[in-house]
Amino acid sequence: MPKQKKREQHHLRQTPARRRSYTIGGTAPAEKYKAGFPMNLLAKVKVIYVIGAVVIICGVLIAAVAQSANPSRKTAADTTPTATVDGSLTPTGSETAAATVNPKTFTKAEQVIDAATKQYTATIKMDKGDIVLKLNADAAPHTVHSFVFLAQKGFFDGLTFHRVEPNFIVQGGDPKGNGTGSPGYQTQDEPNQVHNTRGTMSMAKASGATQFGSNFFINLKDNVGLDFDTKAGDKFYPFAEVTSGMDVVDKLAPGDVMRSVTIAESPK
After folding, report:
1. 12-64 tens-digit pLDDT
2. Are residues 145 and 43 in the same domain?
3. Number of neighbours of residue 175 by Cβ within 10 angstroms
4. How many CA atoms lie within 13 A of 62 on its CB side?
5. Which of 24, 28, 101, 162 gets the highest tally of CB atoms within 10 A of its CB?
């Protein structure tokens, strides 16, 4: 057979090589394009939603755990005491030495005054002005002693006039801010014949009590019903008198803060 004939027959028996074409979205599963991680997740919207929800929930849970683990983080509104007003027209105070918000508590008043040779004055510094009082250690030495002791210890600093009764009294000196606080000890009444005239200051106490703590009040008018010679009700014995700043006393409102109470002494 001629060589040309053989070559033609040989070519006729050969099958052309098959070319495989790959197109995105082809019909044959083996020929479809498949994106790798993480791009393949972008085509799955539901998966993305689920992952996002899980991340948000985890963030909320972590924040809640952190807050519960640190309960001391409070706002000013959580820690600021609310002053209350007692509607009863009687100066009142706590009889018990209960725990208070004021960390300064004492078992007794240390000896800090010399009533025989010295005269004492107190200055209550308010945002509205200063209130200056002359302390009467001759008429009430133990009461003045207790007041001076607490003032020198800074006990009154930051406390409020928690009770204001117009045309009657203003009351302060309570670490709880509601008339029930205590310095941690009690002082016995000191009966005297000083009248509760406008501008005088006496210690407040519970009804029927003969002892007091740190609550004091300033008379806004002559309160004869509180005097030593009253026929009915409790008796209150003044131990100080406002010598300057009665106009400040008249402007006090419930919750006004005593920035400081300082004591000055001078020879008699």
Report:
1. 444 444 444 444 444 444 444 455 555 555 555 555 556 666 667 766 566 55
2. no
3. 28
4. 6
5. 162
How many whole angstroms separate alpha carbon 188 and alpha carbon 142?
Answer: 8
In this structure, the answer to whether residues 98 and 201 fall within a common structural domain is yes
* Domain identity same for 60 and 94: no
3-state SS, residue 66: helix
- The alpha carbons of the chain give a radius of gyration, in whole angstroms, of 42
193 and 159 within one domain = yes
Claim to verify: residue 90 and residue 63 sit in the same structural domain: no
Residue 108, domain member (yes or no): yes
What distance in Å separates the CA atoms of residue 211 and residue 205, rounded to the nearest whole number? 7
Query: Around Cβ 119, how many Cβ atoms within 10 Å?
Result: 16
Residue type, position 256, single letter: D
Q: By the 8 A CB rule, do 217 and 202 touch?
A: yes
Q: How many domains does the chain have?
A: 2
Q: What is the span of the domain harbouring residue 162?
A: 84-267
Q: What is the pLDDT of residues 150-172, one digit of tens each?
A: 999 999 999 999 999 999 999 99
CA distance 35 to 40: 5
Write down the H helix ranges in 169-266.
Answer: 246-250
Q: pLDDT of 184-226, one tens digit each?
A: 999 999 999 999 999 999 999 999 999 999 999 999 999 999 9
| 113 in the same domain as 57 | no
